[in-house]
Design goal:
By secondary structure, the chain is α/β, with parallel strands linked by helices. It contains five helices and seven strands.
């Protein structure tokens, strides 16, 4: 059988009589009120070395030095700010230099620096293969103005793919632009290079030389339109000589 629980009441413990308790010896160093008041101030001031005011402890500071996480965050913020400011400064300088070279342009350097869109430029396409070189000057709407190749200036057969033919072709195009008065229409120019024949370097030398001194100051972009093959059909069998 189960025994019933006891119904006796438990009396609560009475508080001790202070007159009968023995005195507790407290060290003198802890009874100084000034020491106890200065203790939290010294602990709060310990993380920041050299500070005179009491501040809350910073979790990003360890042993008086910034923690690794805080240093990494600060370095990331600084690099992002510097990268953004440097990029905007470079773009502003680029537009200002372009406007100094183009005094007849209707757009001022201030409007370009304020972030307005650059007008669509004319395009100078340089298509250079190992057999021939084609140069096409087109309007901003892609309609051609001049379209010539090495055969246009008298080169035939294998001579059309030589460096000399491409150089003379570039000089011929620069002369036609000057004769037809197209410099007044061309305010901005984009050079589009395609393929890697000998004419690629030849026409580039023309633009950088004395023949292209009136046109190279208007170049605002140089792009490469070389076709890249991803898979596709099987390539042609390489030619074998001998």
């Amino acid at each position: 059988m189960l025994r019933p629980l006891s119904t006796s009441t438990v009396r609560p413990a009475e508080p001790p009589d202070p007159s009968t308790q023995e005195p507790i010896n407290i060290p003198e160093s802890t009874t100084d009120p000034t020491a106890s008041a200065q203790q939290p101030t010294d602990q709060s001031a310990s993380p920041s070395i050299g500070s005179t005011s009491s501040v809350a402890p910073d979790p990003t500071i360890q042993d008086g030095r910034p923690s690794f996480l805080a240093s990494l965050r600060e370095a990331h913020n600084d690099s992002a700010f510097n990268r953004q400011s440097t990029t905007s400064d470079e773009i502003r300088d680029l537009f200002n230099n372009a406007q100094r070279q183009l005094p007849s342009s209707p757009m001022s350097a201030r409007s370009l620096a304020d972030g307005q869109a650059l007008p669509t430029p004319h395009h100078l396409h340089i298509y250079s293969t190992k057999h021939n070189t084609h140069i096409t000057l087109s309007r901003p709407d892609r309609n051609p103005i001049i379209s010539v190749s090495s055969g246009t200036i008298g080169f035939r057969k294998a001579a059309r793919g030589t460096y000399d033919a491409a150089y003379q072709l570039g000089a011929y195009v620069m002369g036609r632009i000057q004769q037809q008065g197209l410099l007044a229409q061309i305010q901005y120019l984009e050079v589009v290079l395609r393929d890697f024949g000998p004419g690629r370097e030849a026409v580039t030398k023309i633009l950088l030389g004395s023949e292209g001194r009136n046109l190279r100051g208007r170049v605002v972009r140089v792009s490469d339109a070389t076709r890249l093959k991803f898979g596709g059909t099987r390539s042609k069998k390489p030619r074998r000589l001998g």
